[in-house]
Amino acid sequence: MTLGEWLNHMILEDEGPEEVTSETYFTERAVADEAPDARPEAFLAQPPLEAIFEAPLRHDAPRAETPRPMPPPRAPEPAQRYEAPEHPADEIGRVTLALDRLTDRIEHSEGRAGLAISAVEHSVRDALSRIELAERENVAVAARFEGAVDEARTEQARLAERVRRVESEAAGPRSAEALRALEQALGKVANHLYEGEARTRETLTALRERVDEVQTHGAGGDPAAVIEEVVSRVGDRLADAEARTAAAMEGLKDAFSSVDGRLRAVEGGASPALDRRLEQLAANLSSRVDAARGEIAQKLQVSAEGRFDRMERKLAEMSD
Question: Which residue, of 11, 44, 45, 141, is most buried by count of CB atoms within 10 Å of its CB?
Fold first, then answer.
């Protein structure tokens, strides 16, 4: 049986009770009216007035004292209020009051629990938003590192392609064409040198002839001065030609040495310096990627532990 059914049952059983207080009140009034007066009989049984006036006067009778005025009769005190015995309805009222108080306390506790739950929900949402933001940042950092790694891979592939192309060209027909072009250039330089040397010889021969002619005919002026001037000019021209020839020879030597070094490098495979640089670049990129991953994992672990510790402390405080 539920509480509501029990209350309805009790009300139906005790329905229409008599008003006990009114009945007891009237019965007490009737009992009070029928009760004898507590005053003395001498005071109550007074002779009538006619007997007093018709009685003869007696001289020997003692003089009656002057009667004292009687106090006004007191009104009968009302009967005390009769308290009715406890009725089952009073118990129901107390139960109802207790239920109301219990309901208020439950509602108050539910309100506090709702506020606590809303605070926890807000904290959880805040933590989730922060975790999502950290994840997005980590994804962005990882994307940047992946982009750098892809660029390094692309550069490495490009360098490998260039090395492969150089190796294939060194073994193919284009290397022969390059060698023929180099031979032609060297031939042109040698021809220029030969032509310059021939012009120098012709100039010297012409100068000798003029000197001989001057000495033979005895032209006007000082022949010694003319000879010295001609010799100085010829010496300057010879020095200039020798300097240009030496510079051309040095250039040819450098070109030959460079071509020889390149041919040796192509014949011997890829350059060891290039291999070392590629290996160093790959190792550097690998170390940077590993360090970045370790730093990201450490930051994620520290942030996650701090957030979960704060959430556990809040939940413990709320449960307390």
Answer: 141
